[in-house]
Amino acid sequence: MSEVLSESPIYPPKENVKPISQISSLDEYKNLYNFSINHPEEFWAEQAKRLTWFHPWENVLDDDFSEADVAWFSGGKLNVSHNCIDRHLKDKAEKIALIWETDEPGEAKTYTYSQLKHEVCRIANVLKASGVKKGDCVCLYMPMMPELVFSMLACARIGAIHSVVFAGFSAESLRDRIIDCGCKVIVTANESKRGGRCYPLKNIVDKAIQGLTLVEKVFVAKRTLTEIEMQPGRDLWLHEEVQKERRSCPAEWMSSEDPLFILYTSGSTGKPKGLMHTQAGYLLYASMTFEYVFNYHPKDIYFCAADIGWITGHTYLVYGPLSVGATTVLFESTPLYPDPGRYWEVIEKHKVNIFYTSPTAIRAVARFGKDYPAKYDLSSLRVLGSVGEPINPEAWKWFYETIGRGECTLVDTWWQTETGGIMITPLPGVTDMKPGSATLPFFGVNPCLVDDNGLELTENNTNGNLCIKKPWPGMARSIYGDHQRYVETYFTQYPGLYFTGDGCKRDEDGFYWISGRIDDVINVSGHRLGTAEIESSLTSNPLVAEAAVIGIPHQIKGMGICAFIVPSVEASSFSVDEISGTIKQQLRNDIGAFALPDQLQIVKGLPKTRSGKIMRRILRQIAIGEHEDLGNLSTLAEPNVVDDLIKQLKTR
Ligand code: PRX
Hints:
This protein is of the alpha/beta class. It contains 21 helices and 30 strands.
């Protein structure tokens, strides 16, 4: 292990960013880092000056971390939308806040901070007029269009909690999420546009809320010219409603620990969890990490290619950049539309300085070689970022050399929906870069590795389960409506520690190398999917008797989904194609097209222990063709199943 790591190349910090780095040297980083860990209250009290407070906070931290009970800046009052808009109006009213790069190239639209305020306030007034009050939850099921950003900030302005549901989720998934947080109001669009195709968002909403008396109002943004059915009394066009409203709306005074948003993510068991983030700590953490990790400067154009339906879009497309008054690009399309040069075209056109994307997207475009990037002027780029999954060294090098011309800092940022913001990352001009390593912790973040018994592994050159020892302001505070589940999921496996669910190595320099999930979560293209969630959809189909889902390496997506199905007796009159067609449709309906398996294996039986537990380790080895040495099979209930499986898969 140590040999492999010591062979990994080291890229020293880029000289060009040193003079403009927030932190000037590794020593300065270490000193400030140690201070942030040893004196967290002093450190974060100083940082809290970044935010504009309506009323000062009293306590920096009320900490009962081991009980998962943490409050930051209690007693303080502020408003997130005020921090992201109003406070910039004095000197940045005409600065561009948002550049909307639409699906069709050449149709970009911009909004200044002053326009942003008007748009946000009008939607805030629309929501208020429809009865939304402080503490109510509003569901946003929308394309990557400005109205989504406006609606998030409108909720924040009036103290409503937003729950953005990724627009790729099916009606069934959307329905679950609407019910879980009791949304009476939904904001959606008639259609979404992506990669030259239109998707019927409003139809999906209609299906999701059929028979749900809970939902009182559906506001529909007009993204395309396609006509849709509007249910009188319930559905209203957003563009018509905003016309009726004033362009100002007072910003509600929110307590630091009031909820800001709920975002659902998959876990290893049960239904998706609605992680709840609160106001002050989240915004402060988003703001500070944004500035330091991306070496942000006021004239920079910043482009985060993530979808707002996931946490990266929340923190680093909307809240982080807007809190510091940055210009942020909202990208509606895909990296491959109309051709694999689309990212580079956007970067050239808007003179982007900071570009943040995922390893999946990098691999997807790298397949097409250097010709596409070569057509564009990428010299404006200074910092590149990667997030969502481990980045393989080949993709890292391609990004660094082909896109960054070897002149940019590449920050591989590790974090999670639960952490709210970046936790482990290089800092431009400060940290050595090692392809594949997220390197060192951010200020205030105290990671540790533990063995399976929870014993801390203090030496370097070691592998373990990644935990965090102390609270940080950006951490999620709860699972909405189920605090017990929050405690059990994150704080009980290793008492006193937050368990991330990731495996990790720490090398001889103390650099962290995240190896990926060690629970039953698959990270597909940087999107988390629980195997239990997919299996429960599969087994709800009458043609399926049993199902097991595992993650397998995938060249582009990082991890792919492999589903093993044992058909039911009822399936005997159907062909294999019919069974797989039905199953895929089921997954589309229950979760969304992005949960379709890359491999669907219809098999006679699954390897199980005598107590009936499916042995996924064996399935994983068979799926990737490593079945020569399957280890100890003595606990298997029916050892023949394994031979059958190998034979069956070999003959395909
Ligand atoms: O396994 C880690 C992986 O993504 C998981 C978090 O997924 P999610 O909550 O959807 O948030 C993704 C965007 C922040 C982590 O538990 N992950 C995220 N970033 C990295 C990563 N794995 C390795 N390296 C990263 N830079």
